[in-house]
Amino acid sequence: MISTKIKWFSGLLAAVFLSVLCASSVWAEADDGEMEDPFEGKPPLADQIKEFSDEIAKRIHKELQELLDKELKVLKKERKKNRYTVEERIMKQEGIIKDDPKNAKAHFALGEVYDEIRDGANAIVHTQIAEQLFKEQKNKMGLAESRRNLRWFFEKYGYKPEDFMLN
Questions:
Q1: Widest Cα–Cα separation across the chain
Q2: Backbone phi, then psi, for 28, in 5-degree steps?
Q3: Lower Cβ count inside 10 Å, N or C end of the chain?
Q4: Region 97-107 average pLDDT
Q5: What is the secondary structure of 82-148 as a DSSP string?
Q6: CATH assignment of 86-163?
């Protein structure tokens, strides 16, 4: 939704810019062959352009602000709906793992929760388990995401892969 509005604003700005360029180079030819100023008796073109662009900028700013306010409200609502404590999220993922120890997504999610609370060792262990399970399941996307997180966790927490050898 945001990208549609931004594209609309971009198109509007382009149209305004083109019309200003065209208007600045438009001159009417009089009957006697001389060029005459079509803006004669009006404020200078630069003043007209500035006034017009100020008005457009105000409208764009207002529309964009309204759009951003709407999106912020939606995000806040979703955040409230999905707000679980870290302990609840850990318990949920551990429950899933207890029922299905080969659930790679649960191990991956648990690794990310442990990372949120800065428990690097548990984050790495569960992400390594997820990596192994994703590899067995031939899930390339999960495998790539696990490896990306592992690289990040090793760097972030100062560990080396040798510190965590899985059987």
A1: 96
A2: -90, 145
A3: C
A4: 97
A5: T---HHHHHHHHHHHHHH-TT-HHHHHHHHHHHHHTT-HHHHHHHHHHHHHHHHHTT-HHHHHHHHH
A6: 1.25.40.10
Place of tokens 């999610």: 109
Q: Please report where in the chains the tokens 């409200």 appear, as a residue.
A: 73
The residue ranges of every structural domain in the chain are 2-27+39-81, 86-163
pLDDT tens for 12-24 read 666 666 565 555 5
Average the pLDDT over 98-107 and give the result. Answer: 97
Q: How far apart are CA 141 and CA 154, in angstroms?
A: 20
> For 67-95, how does the pLDDT look when each residue is reduced to its tens digit (9 = 90+)?
999 999 888 877 766 667 889 999 999 99
Type of residue numbered 93: Q
Exposed, middle or buried by CB within 10 Å (0-12, 13-18, 19+), for 92?
Answer: middle
pLDDT value for 27: 46
Helices and strands of the chain, counted as H and E runs? 6, 2
Per-residue confidence (pLDDT) for residue 21, from 0 to 100: 53
